[in-house]
Amino acid sequence: MPVVFDGDELCTGVVELLRARKERALAEVVARSRVLLSPVPERWSMGAREVEAYRVSVVVGAADHVALHGSAEKQEALREAFAAAIRTDKTEMADLFVVLALPPSGLPFSYAYRDAPKREEEAPSAAAVLWGATRLLEARGDEVGAAVMGRAAVEQAVAVGSARTMRRYLVRLPARDLAAVEGNTALGDRLASAMRDAAATASEPVSAVVFGLMLEG
What we know:
Largest sheet: 4 strands, mixed
Distance between the termini: 56 Å
Shape: globular
CATH architecture of the largest domain: 2-Layer Sandwich
């Protein structure tokens, strides 16, 4: 029978490993996070070994997201701990992503190992992404960006390409805010970055973000 590889068990193992390594603050971040595995592993040949390599997403709150992305040392410690925990004679970690947590209704993920049944990942709603991006800007201390995003509305569409699927977000802004974004490249970059971080999922880490005018009604 196939062995079920569970994200919650992986999370618990990493927490214990980080605590044993005296990385208590990082262990607490993982303990309050959610760990998700890519539904389809990559096949790797490592000498005489044939392994299944999984992408891992650590879903964290806005404050933890800012803290982790602001420290290369913490990211490396996190990556090494997850790689050590997932490594077996048949499994390895392909990559690790730190993903912003969205409202629970936006994350109905189910991942399985080997031949166990799986469900496809559902992308978060446009409203959930807008909510997450606003909270992330607040956590980053970007009061102007958070205020602009708080007045925005978001539409999303899915573009299917030959290589992968990409979600495209249109951020509609009132005329004054749109003019401010058009005249301030740094502001637009901050808003787009927050949207991409909020929209990232295990299988689709990159999304396109454009700005447009909010229409009456």
